[in-house]
Amino acid sequence: MGFKKLLASLGAGGASVETELFEANVVPGGVVQGEVRIQGGSVDQQIEGLSVGLQARVEVEGGDQEVKQDIEFTKVRIGGAFEVRAGAVHVVPFGLEIPWETPVTSVDGQPLRGMNIGVTTELEIARAIDSGDLDPISVHPLPAQQAILDAFIRLGFRFKSADMERGHIRGTRQRLPFYQEIEFQAPSQYRGLNQVELTFVADDREMDVILEMDKKPGLFSEGSDSYRAFQVGLNDFQGTDWSAYLNEWLAQVGGRRNWL
Q1: Which of 195, 176, 197, 175 is CA-nearest to residue 185?
Q2: Domain 2-139 class in CATH
Q3: Which residue in 75, 195, 200, 203 has the most C-beta neighbors within 10 A?
Q4: Is the overall model pTM greater than 0.85, yes or no?
Q5: At the top level of its lineage, which domain of life is listed (predicted)?
Q6: Mean pLDDT lowest for which of 14-18, 42-46, 210-214?
Q7: How confident is the model at residue 199 (pLDDT cuts 50, 70, 90)?
Q8: Measured CA distances, 258 to 187, 251, 255 (Å)
Q9: Where in the chain is the domain with CATH 2.60.40.640?
Q10: What is the number of other CB atoms lying within 10 angstroms of the CB of residue 186?
Q11: Distances from the Cα of 25 to the Cαs of 6, 106, 121, in angstroms?
């Protein structure tokens, strides 16, 4: 169970707020369920609105450096205007849909370093907004995504890092204002590769899989990036040997050093 205390102070003698997630482990396309509990203070208060959303901490290029920015990428209003009486408890249940593009934050039960996604709660009171802290969720891969990740591991790649970057990948079904890159260190048999960055962009039927392959420099050439993209059905991925499929491209790009 995921649990968060917002401890929102809605003015002197005002109410406090707690948001409880019934289950913090989710998958893209799923639903995170919970409830918001508003504990009345010493005075009656009029609440004008209540919303929950999802927020991600994303890297944004700014000049010569990258900075972190919190981006709310979905938001649902779960309550209209209501009054919280002094000392009373007002409970509002909610179900918040997880967009299909939501980045993966946990693989095989292990959190991916650098991934920060969670539920936010927002109260509107007296024409002001009172926001709470982030309540983290763990986003696990869809079965089709897990099949691709498993193929990389079987080929000898090692997980290096993951990040979320603001921007758009052309030619994909991307709708969110950011995307995830999962970075793998290439094994020795792909001696022409330094690393591979993997991105998933899914909807309710299939997903784009984008590979950015970082080639090592040669004797008379600089290193370069090579891109490949393909589509995978979320319900018909089982019939493909993904290790063999990926190896064809990876060996073609990184099977040897580009000496010339």
Answers
A1: 195
A2: mainly beta
A3: 200
A4: yes
A5: Bacteria
A6: 14-18
A7: very high
A8: 17, 13, 9
A9: 2-139
A10: 24
A11: 20, 9, 18
